Structures are given as C-alpha cells and as structure tokens.
C-alpha cells in the first residue's frame, strides 16, 4: 500500500466514528430517550424560572478537544448548565413571552428531518419535501383567506418572515435608492421591534417612519392614518407601506384590519400584517371575528412556533402575489445549472434569502397528520377561555386592576398599592414572582406605566396553572408589602 493510501486509511478509520453502527447508536439513543422521558414526565414539577449565582460561561469555555466523552456525562452537563438555569420554556407555567411549548410530535418530525437530511430548498433535490412544505403554505393561506396560489416560506421565525415580507414589498413597489428619503412607511409604536430591524436590513432605514397615534386600546386610529397619508401626498412624499398588527406582543392589541385594508387599497399602498402571535386564532370562532379583514393584506406573518405550539424555529410568511415574492428573491448560480426547475413549482430557495435551510416543514406536517387539526383548535379555544378566567379571578383580588381588556390571550394588569409608587411596587412584584419560580410572568411599559403581562399560549397551560399564577401573585404582593413595612400589610 502506498504512502498516500496509508494516510487515507488511517484518517478513514478515525472518521468512521461519525458513522456508528446500530449497537453504538443505541448506546447513545437510549440514555437520551430516557433523559427526555424523565424531562417530559416531570416538566410541570420543574421550576419555571431558576436564577443562578455563578458564571455559566465558565462551564463552556475551552471544552472541546480530541477526546470523546460518555453520553451520561454530557447529559448531566446539559441538565445542570443548560436545561435548569433560566426559563423553562417547555413548562405550562411559562406565561411570559408568548410561549408555544414544543409538542412531542414536532420533535419527532425534526428527528426524521435530521436523520434523512432531505434538502427541501429546491424541488429538484427533494420534490416531495418541497411539495410537503408548499402544502403547508397553501393550508395557512386558506386560513388567512389568501388565494390557493399565494406565495410563502417557512422561515426560522417572525423576524426573518417579516424581513422577507418587507423585502418583497420594496421590490414590488420598485422603491429606488434615490427615492428612499421621501418614501413613507406607516406603523404603530406597538409594532414588534423586528419590524424596524427588517426595515433597516432591507435598506429602507432612511425611509420616513410614521408612527400613527393609537386609541385607548393601543390600536392604530384609522382616520388619523388616512389623514396622514393624504397630507404626505400633498407634501410631495411617497407613501409606500402600512404595517398593522394582529395581536401585538406587548398587550395583544389588534389593529382595525378591515379599515386599514380599505385605506391601503384607496391609496394603492402595500399592506403588511404582523400576525406572528395572533394569526392562528383564525382557527377559532372568536379569532375569525376579531381578525376580520386580515385577508385584505398583501403579506402576512404567522408563527407556528407560537399559535401551533411547536418548538422554537418556525415562522411563516405568506405573500398574496407569489410572482412578486419570486421576483424579490430569485437567483442564478452556474454551479446549480444541473437543477431542473418545474415550471409549476417554485422552490423555497427562490422565495426567501435562504439557500441552505433545514427541512422545517416536517416538524409541522407530522403533528398535523398525526393528531389532525381538532386538538390544535381546542387548545387555542382553551387559551382564550383561560384568559377570560384569569381576568375574572384577578379582579376579585383586592388591589389588582386590568389595564386593557384582552383581545386574545395576553392579559395586562397591575397592582395598585394604597401607598407608594405604583410602578416601583409592580416592578418589585415581578421580581418576587421570579424568585418564587413556580410560574413565569413578564412586564412591559406603556407611556410610562409599568404593566404586568400574562401570555397564555403554552399547550401545557390549563386552569390549574392559572389558579397557581394567581396564588403566586398574591404571595408576591405579601412579600413586597412585608419588605416595605411603611406600606399597610393588611392590603392583601
């Protein structure tokens, strides 16, 4: 054997460790399956929030070398330094940042996608994978009320999905660099921060951003929007796009979608709706009524990892006119000249910035096929009712008030102490609930008012979770009052 062949043989022997046989696979699989089963069996007993008093980074620095490590040791490391500290996002007690949960069947879909390693970015490589993802786009389009031939893409989340929509709008409306300083985008202060990020990344940073005034429900005032567009036209500016929300992150507000749609049509503006949180409530009776007019949009974002309870990592963008989406994202590459493209099928890689992408569709397709849509709809209906229940019960607790009546499943509220600063008290109350750890709530600020939030969307959140959350809030109030002896303890 020659010297070259000897070297190849030696490296091959080591490289083949990456291709374990069935026996070796089971040595790794079995402990992982046992670990995940234990996690799922005890998920509701694990604290929802765990603060730490050490530097996490110290346990992940300079840890890679040529030596292998046993799987049991690796899992122990993950449990102690990854899965335990911080927020347990898999828990039904995660009521903070619009959680979705992470249903088991989605994990199986990801496992299948990772094992087979199908590349579903181009139909030539995986015609079945592309067809599967396109069927999900078509299904979501039917929920929204878009035509069956609408465009769409399964992205990593709402941020990239919104970027795809903004980029498509820019190209569709032929916004040229020279015109950008006179081009106007209309939105709300309640719009998710990823919208402004998308505008910046899409090269529209120097556009004029008009933040339209909101009513007492934190909704865009449509009459003011119309008047502002008229004024901007009269001033020689170029109105371009309106961005509305179907369930804001802060308070769950829904803009007047039908009225805004009519205004956009009147002025020939691109109409985009961020429905990352609220969009899938269209599957419920209440949601269909509250989100009426959503079909008037030119583009929309929905997050299956929120409203369909999937693990993090799946957002969806829908564009009513698929041709416009393709024109904004198509590509040509000589090394891909062997790929034959079907005239009737547009591949995901031609409809988004991504070429290399995971087979995301399987994590949604498998659960929908395995369970059907009925339990998903029931889960959404339950969350709406649980939100009503929370509002009903927290009003009975002396000192609490509802800040805004919820539109969907985000409740905003605060405690009004008889003495002292209201904002400071509620800030201390949030910290007290975090120290408690049995549930996780969050906060926001609206016009200088510190507000508590309860985002009810985890598929593991049920009535007993809400009862526990109310008890944690009561306990938190007592704790804050006791820490501030100058306040009357008998308030609680």
Percent of residues in helices? 40-55%
Element-by-element helix/strand order? HHEHEHHEHEHEHEHEHEHEHHHEEHEEH
Number of strands: 13
What is the end-to-end distance? 85 Å
The number of distinct helices, counting runs of at least 4 residues, comes to 16
Amount of beta strand:
5-15%
Question: Care to give the gist of this entry?
Answer:
The protein is α/β, with parallel strands linked by helices. It folds into two domains: 109-371, Aspartate Aminotransferase, domain 2 (3-Layer(aba) Sandwich); 374-491, Aspartate Aminotransferase, domain 1 (Alpha-Beta Complex). It has helices at residues 3-15, 22-41, 71-83, 104-116, 127-144, 158-172, 193-201, 222-234, 257-267, 285-290, 304-307, 322-329, 362-371, 374-394, 422-436, 463-483; strands at residues 49-50, 86-87, 151-155, 183-187, 208-211, 238-245, 270-274, 299-302, 315-319, 400-404, 410-415, 442-446, 449-455.
Description of the molecule:
The chain is an alpha/beta fold. The protein has two domains: 263 residues, 3-Layer(aba) Sandwich (Aspartate Aminotransferase, domain 2), CATH 3.40.640; 118 residues, Aspartate Aminotransferase, domain 1 (Alpha-Beta Complex), CATH 3.90.1150. The protein has 16 helices and 13 strands. The strands form three sheets. It has a seven-stranded mixed beta sheet with strand order 3-9-8-7-6-4-5, with helices on both faces. A hairpin with a 5-residue loop joins strand 10 and strand 11. Helix 4 packs across helix 13 and helix 8 runs parallel beside helix 9. The longest helix has 21 residues. It is globular, with a radius of gyration of 25 Å. The protein starts with a helix and ends in a 9-residue tail after the last helix. The mean pLDDT is 93.
């Amino acid at each position: 054997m020659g010297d070259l062949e000897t070297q190849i043989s030696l490296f091959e022997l080591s490289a083949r460790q990456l291709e374990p046989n069935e026996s070796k696979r089971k040595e790794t699989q079995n402990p992982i399956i046992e670990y995940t089963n234990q996690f799922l069996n005890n998920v509701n007993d694990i604290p929802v929030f765990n603060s730490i008093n050490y530097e996490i980074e110290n346990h992940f620095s300079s840890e890679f070398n040529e030596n292998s490590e046993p799987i049991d040791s690796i899992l122990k490391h993950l449990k102690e330094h990854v899965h335990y500290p911080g927020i347990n996002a898999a828990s039904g007690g995660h009521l903070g940042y619009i959680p979705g949960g992470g249903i088991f069947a989605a994990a199986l879909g990801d496992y299948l996608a990772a094992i087979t390693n199908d590349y579903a970015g181009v139909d030539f490589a995986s015609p079945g994978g592309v067809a599967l993802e396109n069927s999900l786009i078509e299904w979501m389009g039917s929920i929204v009320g878009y035509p069956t031939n609408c465009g769409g893409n399964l992205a990593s989340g709402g941020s990239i999905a919104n970027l795809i929509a903004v980029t498509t709008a820019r190209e569709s409306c032929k916004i040229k660099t020279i015109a950008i300083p006179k081009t106007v985008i209309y939105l709300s202060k309640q719009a998710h921060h990823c919208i402004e990020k998308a505008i910046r990344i899409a090269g529209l940073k120097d556009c004029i951003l008009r933040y339209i005034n909101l009513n007492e429900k934190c909704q865009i005032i449509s009459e003011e929007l119309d008047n502002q567009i008229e004024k901007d036209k009269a001033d020689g500016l170029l109105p371009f796009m309106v961005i509305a929300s179907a369930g804001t992150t802060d308070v769950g507000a829904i803009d007047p979608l039908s009225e805004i749609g009519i205004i956009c049509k009147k002025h020939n503006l691109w109409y985009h709706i961020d429905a990352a949180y609220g969009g899938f409530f269209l599957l419920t009776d209440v949601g269909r009524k509250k989100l009426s007019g959503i079909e008037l949009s030119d583009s929309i974002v929905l997050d299956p990892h929120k409203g369909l309870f999937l693990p993090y990592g799946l957002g969806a963008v829908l564009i009513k006119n698929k041709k416009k989406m393709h024109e904004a994202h198509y590509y040509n590459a000589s090394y891909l000249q062997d790929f034959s493209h079907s005239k009737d099928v547009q591949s995901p890689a031609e409809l988004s910035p991504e070429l290399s992408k995971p087979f995301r569709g399987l994590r949604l397709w498998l659960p929908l096929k395995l369970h059907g849509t009925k339990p998903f709809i029931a889960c959404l209906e339950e969350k709406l009712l649980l939100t009503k229940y929370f509002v009903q019960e927290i009003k009975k607790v002396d000192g609490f008030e509802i800040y805004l009546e919820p539109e969907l499943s985000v409740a905003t509220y605060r405690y009004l102490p008889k003495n002292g600063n209201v904002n400071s008290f509620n800030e201390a109350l949030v910290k007290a609930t975090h120290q408690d750890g049995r549930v996780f709530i969050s906060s926001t600020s609206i016009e200088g008012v510190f507000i508590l939030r309860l985002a009810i969307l985890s598929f593991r959140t049920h009535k007993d979770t809400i009862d526990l959350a109310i008890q944690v809030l009561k306990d938190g109030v007592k704790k804050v009052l006791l820490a501030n002896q100058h306040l009357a303890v008998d308030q609680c």
